[in-house]
Design brief:
Layout lengths: L38 E2 L9 E6 L2 E6 L9 E6 L11 E6 L2 E6 L6 E5 L4 E5 L9 E7 L2 E4 L12 E7 L2 E3 L4 E2 L7 E7 L2 E9 L10 E4 L15 E7 L6 E8 L5 E8 L5 E3 L10 E9 L2
Parallel strand pairs: 1-2
Antiparallel strand pairs: 2-3, 3-4, 4-5, 5-6, 6-7, 8-9, 9-10, 11-14, 12-13, 12-16, 14-15, 15-21, 16-19, 17-18, 17-21, 18-19, 19-20
């Protein structure tokens, strides 16, 4: 049968007190079958399996038995961790050279640094392993999905807003948007951009050449005209007769779209020009295109 020995420190004068719990139920503490310190408060070089130290206003709890400070697995729970994070509570985990912090206040909710290059979100295959199906990964290139790791496929941008469009002639002049009809809205997801809105002009104009509506981002320039596309434009009050099938189109590298239409009389394709419309025009646009 094993024996229990409590031995005092030859140079210490402190008293070790073991207090029974306030319960009528027996409690058992089982020690590991190994030799070594179970708890230390040394900080710096870790000497025990569990090390608790306080420094820089942080309480650090570390698990393991490594002798090098940079190789410890550690958890830090702190308040007022640094001067720039005053009154910010956080949990900080480190393994080797990789670190992650979960902030319960301040400007960052979650932050990783050093060797951490991916944050993976999995659906667990079972409760005992971490080999579940990857649904999303946060990388240096952006977000990837369903196990895809290709940098070119990463979602690296999402933006919504409005912009103040312009209508100009390809060879000169412009049209003036009417007050209350001066903006288009857009949504950018990765390199795909969708623009919608209603336009109306006021007063006379001096636009010559085909009419150009500005875009919030330039159209991409891909292989074999693959960036080319068409959108929807609904025109009225243009002064043009026998017009049908008006369509928005774009060209690679340019930050504008323009319009083609057909004429009933001879089925020719024409650009919508400033020289053959009324002084004021109006309509709706809906256009989706791709940037680089």
């Amino acid at each position: 049968m094993s024996k229990v020995k409590i031995q005092g420190n030859a140079s210490g004068t402190g008293v070790l007190t073991v207090t029974a719990p306030n319960t009528s139920t027996d409690r058992t503490i089982t020690l590991p079958d190994s030799t070594g310190e179970l708890l230390s408060t040394a900080g710096g070089t870790m000497t025990g399996m569990l090390d608790i130290a306080t420094s820089n206003n942080a309480t650090q709890i570390r698990l393991g038995d490594a002798t090098s400070d940079t190789n410890k697995d550690s958890w830090i729970v702190s308040r007022n961790h640094t001067a720039s994070e005053e009154d910010t509570a956080l949990i900080h985990a480190r393994c080797g050279d990789s670190e992650a912090s979960l902030y319960l206040g301040g400007t960052d909710a979650f932050n990783t640094q050093n060797a951490v290059t991916n944050i993976r979100f999995l659906t667990a295959a079972n409760t005992t392993t971490l080999n579940g199906t990857e649904r999303m990964r946060v990388t240096n290139n952006g977000l990837t999905f369903n196990g895809d790791t290709a940098a070119a496929n990463a979602l690296d941008d999402y933006e919504t807003g409005v912009y103040q469009y312009t209508i100009t002639g390809s060879t000169g002049g412009s049209m003036t948007p009417k007050s209350g009809y001066e903006y288009f809205s857009y949504t950018k997801i990765g390199r795909q951009v969708t623009v919608i809105g209603k336009f109306e002009t006021s007063g006379s104009h001096n636009a010559t050449g085909y009419l150009k509506w500005s875009l919030p981002f330039a159209v991409g320039n891909f292989a074999d005209q693959s960036e080319s596309g068409a959108g929807t434009i609904f025109l009225y009050r243009t002064g043009l007769a026998n017009v049908y099938n008006p369509t928005l189109v774009s060209s690679a590298g340019f930050s504008f779209f323009y319009s083609y239409y057909n004429t009933i009389s001879n089925n020719e394709v024409n650009t919508l020009d400033g020289g053959n419309v009324d002084s004021t025009i109006e309509g709706f646009v809906h256009f989706t295109y791709f940037t680089d």
